[in-house]
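User: Run a structure prediction on this.
Assistant: Running it now.
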Amino acid sequence: PLSLSDIAHPTFPRLSHIPTNTTQSINPSTHPSIMCRFHVTTILLLIAGAVGTSGSAASSARMTGETRNDGVPPSPSKTEESVRRLQSDGTPPKISAYQPDTNVFDYLVMDLDVAAINAAAARNDEDSVYDMEDVYREGGHSQPYAIITLRNGLPQPIAAGTACLGVDTDSESVRLYARKNYAQGEKQLELVYDDANTSPGGSKCQVGGLLKIRMEGCLRNEGDIYITGVDALDYFYDAELENYNARTISDFSTTARASMAQCGNSCPYEEYTKFVEYYGRYDYAEQWMNAALDLRPTEFENGDADWSKYDDLNVAETIRQGVVYLHIWMKVVERLERAVSDCSDCLSIICPANPENIWSQAVAYYSGSQVANENSTMLYYLADIRCGTFETCAPDSDTLEGGQGWSSVVNVEIFRLFSEAKDLLNRRSCLEVVAIKNRIIELMRIPLIQGALRYAHINANDQIYTEKHQVESATFAAAILPAIHKCSPDDAKIIYQAMKADSEAPKVDYPAVKRAFERNYECLNITCADVGGIYDQENNEYLPGAAPCSDSTTRRKFDRDAVRIAVFTFVGIGGALVVAIIVSYVKCKKDEADSKREIEMMQAANGDSELKLEENAVIS
């Protein structure tokens, strides 16, 4: 038997989920029982006031928009080093300005599936949509695994994660591990390629639903497979047909109900619930894609799209954009929420879950493996591209490493928050991460709103309007309408009617759409300055009617220090007052007992029945 104990396959299991002298006439209002209740109630009111004060302090700090005393940490200098390249000290490579503590290579490469979908769309031929669907449903880059058949069956049971060794199609050794538990005698095994977890570029075996497959890293068609603790076993399979991917873009939607609505005490997640309530489907993103691929209407409670009025070449636009704005956008949210809930589940510094790793997965999905070059396709790229259109780019001094040579204010702030939250998760400061997570989600909506406004403006112009633009407009709207609807159903209806997928829809009333969005900025906790306006770079001015709106309130900005002020004020004052309650209660009970004894003594001495204290008076 071959020992492969040096091959590590870390897993991060999810935990199950997760405050005086007595006279002849006694006045009940001065009795110790009543006064005890009075003292405790007063202290509780003081706690409420303290909480309100700390909350107001935090709110005021957010509303001022002032720079933190220690300043925003300077952005790392630009570098030509790719995110795929391992750093010299052996730590995982940075994702732009973010330094993960663990490898998330297999999550970063999801953008290669998106790139393959975009490549199929760019061909613009009769097979484009079919090839896009194959990658959407079957993947090609993330969590690849082979299904092999043993000629004689397993001589003994093996556990999930058991290391295996075989030979690939280039006669090189290839490391794998068992995808699940297998019983003695089983013949069919699913083996995951280990290089997907350990190689910055992902696995060399890339098949799945790809049109252009890569076979050199795949297990060869037949031979011996060596399993830890087991003799060599003879196997066979078809490398071109039996290499799959366990992580696909379609899965992000089809598994959403289990991961965001039925995942324990922390579910359902708030942002996901908005989409479910609006569309009336847990798998709304999958249903959007299915309808587009079948050229038929969706069947939503709100926000329907009628793809029967378009051809394949036009619906290709909603497929390639929808996988990012509908599927991956919500998957980022799911990973952020999961990291926070797993952190909360941890009862000590030593924790079976790894919230930091899950948080880094969210960063990987947001950014992608190609964040450092012009082939980027993910949400990071969208924020940077839209900032050039809406004049919301950061100063050159704040430009993040990698990217396009410039950075949006959205990305600069999101990556600052990504890094701060990771450090807090490592310290199990879970409460502080909740506010950061919420702020990141708010910031992630801004590029979607910018995209919707841009295409609404295009569709209002008869000279440049096309059905392709209308499809893109509808896709951006679909990604933001549930949040708008939660704030104002009437404004959501205005936006939907103007931007829905309907080739016979009337010309867009851009001012009405713009105002409908702007009326909800305060509810979404963003500002006019955050969104900006459509800028004419050639004439160095905003397009007519497309300038930024004016905020009636001071710019609101997330401030971690404000959150800490609130948390520590609450904990400090609250803790002291809780102690005061306990001390007061003990003293009250002692005074009450002394008073009762005094009354009994007076009753015994005077025989005066009127000295008895009415129970009802005490209770009232």
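The CA atoms of residues 533 and 548 lie 4 Å apart.
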